Amino acid sequence: MFDSSSSTESEDFGDQNTIKVVLLGSTGVGKTAIVDRFVKNVFNQNTKVTVGSAFNTKPIKIGKQEFHLNIWDTAGQEKFHSLAKMYYRDAVAAIICFDITKQESFLECSRWRSELQESGSPDILLTIVGNKTDLEGSRTVKLEAAEKWAQNNDCVYLETSAKSGYNIQEIFDQICVRYANNNQSWENSEKKIKRGFELNEKNNLSPNTNQLRSTNEKDGCC
Ligand SMILES: Nc1nc2c(ncn2[C@@H]2O[C@H](COP(=O)(O)OP(=O)(O)OP(=O)(O)O)[C@@H](O)[C@H]2O)c(=O)[nH]1
Ligand SMILES: [Mg+2]
C-alpha cells in the first residue's frame, strides 16, 4: 500500500554507496515534510497523511564522493503500524522523528526504537530528530531530555524545522558520513572524502554536523 505520489520500487544504482533510509515516528510529527524539504526543497502546510509508505530517492555529494539515498517515509498512523515494519528490513539507517511541541510523540520514540530492534539490523545507523523548531515557543520536550535519550540509545540527535529548512540537509549528510566511517571497504582505502567530511576513525561524530559543515566550507569544498 503506497501513496499515489510514490514509486513502489527501490532504486538500485549498482553502487556500494546506495543507502536505504527509513523514517518512522508518530503521525503528524513531520516525516513527510522533512523528506519533501530535503528532496524537493518545498514545505507544505497541509501535507496529506501518509498511507502505507512513500518512496523517494536523492543523490548527495560530500566532497568528491556520491551517495544515493533510497528514502522510505513510513506512515505514523496506528492502523499502518504493522506495515511499517517491513520497511525496516535491510535499512542501513533509521530516523525516528518526534515533534518538539508534542511530549507524547517524544515518549513514543522508545516504542519505535523497540520495533526497529525487532525487525531491523542491529547495526542500523540511528538518528533521532526533534522537528518543528520554528514553534520553539510551544516546545514541551526539553532539549536535555532528547539528548539524554540519544545518549542512552547510542544515536545522533538533531533538532530540525521542515518549515524553515533548519538542519534538514544535516540529517542526511551525517548519515552518509557515519555510513562511510563504518564501511570496511572505505576504511581500507585511502581517505576518500578528503575535501569534504574527513573519515573519522573513532567514529565519534558530533551530533550536529554544522561543525563539520563549516570545516567543509573553510576547505572551499562543495
Ligand atoms: N510549523 C511546522 N509544521 C510542520 C513542520 N513539519 C511538518 N509540519 C506540519 O505538520 C503536519 C504533519 O506533517 P507530516 O509531514 O504530514 O507528518 P507525518 O509525520 O508525515 O505524518 P504521517 O504521514 O501521518 O505519519 C503538516 O501540517 C505539516 O505542514 C515544521 O517543521 N514546522
Ligand atoms: Mg507522512
Topology, element by element:
Blueprint: E1 18-25, H1 31-40, E2 53-62, E3 65-74, H2 81-88, E4 93-99, H3 103-107, H4 109-119, E5 125-131, H5 143-152, E6 156-159, H6 168-182, H7 184-188, H8 210-218
Parallel strand pairs: 1-3, 1-4, 4-5, 5-6
Antiparallel strand pairs: 2-3
The structure holds guanosine-5'-triphosphate and magnesium ion (MG).
Short overview:
This protein has 222 residues and is an alpha/beta fold. It has a single domain (4-211), classed as 3-Layer(aba) Sandwich (Rossmann fold). The protein has helices at 31-40, 81-88, 103-107, 109-119, 143-152, 168-182, 184-188, 210-218, and strands at residues 18-25, 53-62, 65-74, 93-99, 125-131, 156-159.
Walkthrough of the structure:
- This protein is α/β, with parallel strands linked by helices and 222 residues long.
- It has one domain: P-loop containing nucleotide triphosphate hydrolases (Rossmann fold, 3-Layer(aba) Sandwich).
- The chain contains eight helices and six strands; from the N terminus they run βαββαβααβαβααα.
- The chain has helices at residues 31-40, 81-88, 103-107, 109-119, 143-152, 168-182, 184-188, 210-218, and strands at residues 18-25, 53-62, 65-74, 93-99, 125-131, 156-159.
- A six-stranded mixed β-sheet has the order 2-3-1-4-5-6, sandwiched between helices.
- Bound molecules: guanosine-5'-triphosphate and magnesium ion (MG).
- Residues 27-33, 44-47, 49-50, 75-77, 131-132, 134-135, 161-163 line the site of guanosine-5'-triphosphate.
- Residues 202-222 are annotated as: Disordered.
- This is Ras-related protein rab-5c.
- Pfam families: Ras.
- Residues 202-214 have a biased composition (Polar residues).
